Please model this.
Amino acid sequence: MKKYLLIGLKVFITLLVLIFLYEKISADPSGFIAAFKLFNQNIVVLFVVIFLMPFNWLMEVLKWKYSIQPITQITMSNAVIGVLAGVALGFVTPHAIGDYFAKVFSITHQDRKKALGLILISRMMQMLPTALFGLLALFIYSQRSLVEIEIPFSITYPFLSILGFIIIIIFILLFLKRKHPKIHEYIEPVNRMGFKLITILTGLSFLRYLIFSTQFLLLLSVLNLKIDVFLQFMGIAFMFLAKSVLPTFNFLSDLGIREFSVALFFDSLNVEVAPIIASGLILWLINIALPALVGLFFIPQLKLKNT
Model:
C-alpha cells in the first residue's frame, strides 16, 4: 500500500512540475526564444561552460576512485568508465540505479556488493554542500520580501546548521555501528574509511558543487538579470535542494525538476522565468545529455563477470 501511495505522490508532483513549466513557457514564448538568441550571440560564454563540463565530471571520477579505496584500487581509466557509463545508464533509469550498476560493474573485486555502501557514502558527501547552501536558499525563499532581504548571517543560521549536521553525523555513526547481518557486509568497508579519505571526498563534493554553480551563473550572466549574483547563486542552491528531496520520477536525469525548482525561486523574485528555464535546458544538454552520449561507448567495457 505504501509503495503505491509513494508512486502516486511521485506522479502527482511530476505532473505539477510539467504543468508549471508548460504554463511559464507558454506565457512568455518570446522570452524563451529570445534567451536562446542571447546565448547564440554570446558564444564565448557557452564555450567556457562547455570547457568546465569535463572538470565537473572529473570531480565525480576522483570521488569514485577515492571512495572505493577501502576494498580495492582502480585506475583513472576504470574510474572514468564507471562514472560515464553510470551517467548513460542513469539517464534512463530512476533513482540513480544505473549509476550504481555501472560503478559496481566497473571493478573486478570478488565481492562487488561491498562497493554499494561506499557509493552511498560518496553520494551522501555531495549532500553536504547541497544541504548547507540549500537550507540558506530555502530560508530566503520563505521570506515575503525577497528582494529587500538582508543576508541572514546572524548567529542563528550557522548555529542551527552546524547543530543539524552534528545530529545527522551522530545518526550516521550509530547506523554504521549496527551489526545486523544483512547490512554488515555493506557497512564494513565504510567503517574502514579514515578521516583523510572523508575529507578528500567532502572537498571534491564542494568543488563539484561550485563548478556546476559557476556554469549556471555564467549562463545567467547572459540574461542580464536585475538581481545580484548572491541571489542568483541562491536560486541554484534552491534547485539542488529541491532536486534532492522532491519525490519525482527522475525522467532523463532530472530533466524538468531542475528547471522547475530554479524557475520557482526566480519567479518569487519577479524575474522572467522563461529565460531561466532556457538556461537550465542548455546546462542540462551540456552537463548531462552530452556526457551520457559519450558514456554509451563505455557501457560495453563494464565487467559483468568477476575475474
Summary: The longest helix spans residues 114-141. Confidence is low (pLDDT under 50) at residues 144-155. The chain has twelve helices and no strands. Residues 225 and 271 are 7 Å apart (CA to CA).
